[in-house]
Specification:
- With 329 residues, this protein is an alpha+beta fold.
- It is 17% helix and 38% strand.
- The chain is built from seven helices and 21 strands.
- The strands form four sheets. Strands 1, 2, 3, 4, 7, 10, 11, 12, 13 and 14 form a ten-stranded mixed sheet that branches.
- β2 and β3 form a beta hairpin.
- The longest helix has 12 residues.
- The protein is elongated and about 70 Å long.
- It starts with 12 loop residues before the first strand and ends in a 5-residue tail after the last strand.
């Protein structure tokens, strides 16, 4: 088998993958490496193996986009199952505690009221089985050894929590709320399921999870693994349209200076933001430190930040050969 050499493809792009169940995020990365013959591949936000849905994947120099997915909203469809909790806060773990499903849990008005308590800025304790580091060690590594772990609550934000349906599970005397969550970075939906169970007095866990969107990447923008081989030439996404960042359009003659990380004079008339996929002029005041993509018609060259005097743009990230905005050739 021929070993894939780092950087041999010359490709630098962003795509969305519709992750199937029972695959890790790293499994997806490995598959993409084979499809594009490129060793340098990364993703923009881990999904648990049992979860499905949108996984942003970056190829080549575009892997440096990963940091900019931290500020993206994420949309999920979650099945919260009441009747028992688990050690992992999801369906993969051993049962921790059981409880009785009370009649009020079948009341949609009550359910919506409870969910509203979990909207806004929250203090959330991550699951024991999570990738959170404690003194340089992943929490799940200690949890698997049966060690007691003290995880500190951290600040998260839940933008919305909408009840979709309530389903009775007659066979196992359980009940499921189907909920659409829109959350900020670092929010564990498993922890939301666990804490909602605590709020209503009935143990609960996350029974299924599908990520419907990350930033502007939706499920409809994302390819199934088996389709990547056939569609790899037309699966590229435009970073300007899917990441929450302004775009600064330059003349091609400025490319050498940008690729060398040179500062450039700021012209507010060249700043645009994408609304519903279309570039619109920005009519609001910008503040020091505002970041923006440096853009040509066919590629993103880098990310620059506005200086304190609002006079210059200074390099924050350069993407080497750039990140393509059009189809992979």
């Amino acid at each position: 088998m021929t070993k894939i050499k780092r950087g041999q493809s010359g490709i630098s792009c962003l795509l969305g993958v519709n992750k199937p169940p029972n695959f890790t995020s790293h499994d997806i990365v490995n598959t993409v490496r084979k499809v594009f013959c490129e060793r340098r591949v990364g993703h923009g936000g881990t999904l648990d193996p049992f979860a499905t849905g949108v996984l942003p994947v970056m190829i080549g120099p575009a892997t440096r986009l990963a940091q900019y997915f931290d500020g993206c909203k994420k949309e999920y469809i979650a099945a919260i199952k009441f009747g028992f909790s688990t050690i992992t806060d999801d369906l993969t773990g051993q049962v921790l505690k059981t409880g009785t499903v009370t009649h009020n849990l079948r009341d949609s008005c009550y359910a919506r009221s409870v969910l509203q308590d979990f909207v806004g800025n929250l203090k959330q304790t991550p699951p024991q089985f999570s990738a959170v580091q404690i003194d340089g060690v992943r929490a799940y590594s200690q949890a698997r050894k049966g060690e007691e772990i003290e995880l500190k609550p951290r600040d998260v934000v839940v933008y919305s929590a909408d009840l979709l349906s309530i389903e009775d599970n007659i066979n196992d005397f359980a009940l499921t709320w189907m909920v659409r969550f829109v959350v900020g970075s670092g929010t564990y939906v498993r922890s939301l399921a666990r804490d909602i169970g605590g709020r209503v007095g009935c143990p609960a866990h996350l029974h299924s999870l599908s990520r419907m969107a990350v930033g502007g990447i939706s499920l409809s923008d994302s390819f199934r693994l088996e389709d990547l081989w056939e569609h790899k030439k037309d699966c590229t996404l435009d970073p300007c349209k899917v990441l929450p960042m302004l775009s600064y359009f330059i003349d091609e003659s400025m490319t050498p200076a940008i690729m060398n990380g040179a500062p450039i004079k700021f012209n507010p008339n060249l700043v645009y933001e994408y609304v519903n996929g279309e570039p619109k002029t920005v009519d609001r005041d910008l503040t020091p430190g505002t970041t923006m993509f440096i853009v040509l018609p066919d590629k993103v060259l880098g990310v620059y930040a506005l200086d304190e005097k609002l006079e210059m743009l200074r390099a924050e990230t350069i993407f080497s050969v750039g990140v393509t905005r059009c189809h992979v050739q």
